[in-house]
Amino acid sequence: MTEADILGLYQSNTKFMDITDQDLENLSSFSTPDSGVVLPQRPRHMKIVNKILSSTSLSKMEAWLTTFSSFHTRYYLSPTGKDSAEWLFAQVSNLIGKKNSASHPNVRVSVSKFQHDWSQFSVIARIEAANTVPGTPVVIVSAHQDSVNKANPMNGRSPGADDNGSGSCTIFESLRLLLESDFVPSRPIEFHWYSAEEAGLLGSQKVAAHYKATQTRVSGVYHVDMTGYTNPAKQEVIAFVTDGTDAELNGFVKQIVEVYNNGTKIIDMTCGYACSDYASWTKAGYKSSFTMESFTADSDPFVHTAEDTVDKLSFSHMQKFVNAVVGFAVEMSFDRS
Fold this sequence. Notes:
Order of helices and strands: HHHHEEEHEHEEHEHEH
Mean pLDDT: 94
Strand order of the largest sheet: 1-2-4-3-5-8-6-7
Largest sheet: 8 strands, mixed
Strand content: 15-25%
Number of strands: 8
């Protein structure tokens, strides 16, 4: 689609997934590799997870997101969209560098740029045991890094603090916590920050297509998009999107939310369309789960505008998603198959 097409869709409030490039459609003859993974019946590693979560820092999260949302826009075709991706890559690289310099012979960590046909790349970080056997199924947690001003995608101010700076911050803090611990996963864990979600899930479609084309085995994908806003008139919740996601994986992630966020209300909702990057993985044939901050009707009214700023967010609410992401990564990474 052209930029004019995308602008028209935003201004008419039309929801869309851009399949112009046919990334996944061109792989219809490819079978999705079976992970061979049997999902855990329940969370079992609370001692490990809670120790890791004890180092969560809301002040670090706020400082990180304040900078990430200070770029004029993170729109995937804009100059500052590339600048923000470079900043994100540098932040992840710094964490990776600290882990490597601390001499952890049992753990191998890396970060890479997944390049696209546009300037804003996706970012992929990976944690694995040094003796990981090639082909071991990977655990994926993800968020999209880009933002958009629906009135003026290319040039409009779009801090995107909630959409989806909050999700990006959530998985960054989760990565920091894991890297600063002594945790060694049995299965590799990857953290993905996708480019161009706001343009129709473009980045995640290309990443998922690459994994399918290379027959990469995936244990499961847990995606977060918008984790920071709470409606002051409503009870705080964690919302599960049930259409286009895997019911079995959702069931396990719900148990994780219950165990690591005691008392938090869980609700089910439907999007009615491919409302974030989890849909790319589902379309590729992989198991995915997706949570967000609230019912759509109660969600952040400032998204896709210049008013989507840090001061409107709750970092204690975001912490609930950090708890879920770290819990998912640890619980799913232990080999039970």
